[in-house]
Amino acid sequence: MSYQIGLRHYKYFLAVAEELHFKKAADKLFISQPGLSKQIKEMEEALGFKLFERNNRNVVLTAAGKYLKEEITLLLNDNERILRHAQHIATGNEGEIHLGYVGSAMQTIIPKLLIRFRKKYPSIHFSLQEMDNNRQINDLLGNKIDIGFVRLNEVPKALSLRPVFDETFSLVLPKNHALNSRNFTSLNQLKAEQFIFFEKAYSPSYHEKVISMFEDCGFSPTISHTSVHATTIYRLVENSFGVAIVPSSLKLGYNMNIKFIELKNVPQRAVLSLAWNKENRNPMLRHFLDV
Question: What's the topology of domain 169-268?
Fold first, then answer.
């Protein structure tokens, strides 16, 4: 008996592939476990190969199943995006674009870009989400976002990377700290201080760049705390748990008992880049890149 594979089969397959448990997947889909097992069996018979290896204890994806999971996820994401875009066109809008960004991008680059873009395309719908570099890369590869604003030196081959903004770094100190912009001469003056860093996993290349500043001065910093949020770093500095170094654009929009010293004479620069998927077919992406 032959079966025709449809969208329903894809959704059922992905549920089992994500849960690797038929009962949990069935509960998630609000169907019975026997019914779900039947749908997966139909799909395997139609394809002519197994998607799962299963016994009484474990459910494991086959090599073919792993491949299909990745490709069907992309297919369904594309399908959802295409339908949403068609809906925008049908209601008189020009389309939509989804952006991911690291926090500092919202301080300077993104607002200016959106204003310029909206002047050319006044009916465009924007979706913005702050996320770390790694999640942006994953979401770009999965076509969940169209554009990423990242602090990375390289990305997977499927993506393109374009530097759009470079800036100085700044020291972040408690307001009552003895150093200020007049008496600061070198990071060597902070050898005895504890430092608060952005987490290395947030952006390994960014972390290496900051570390290289200290290497140029001949010492290694004592890192007492790490965080992925500038606000957390500033709160720690404010309460004298350490000092920090951040991109200078992160001076904007905060009102805390801290002060900044711009490191104008340090050669390292914080680079913000635009990343996108080369295979992304959202027509608004090309227009955004032009702007």
Answer: D-Maltodextrin-Binding Protein; domain 2 (3.40.190)
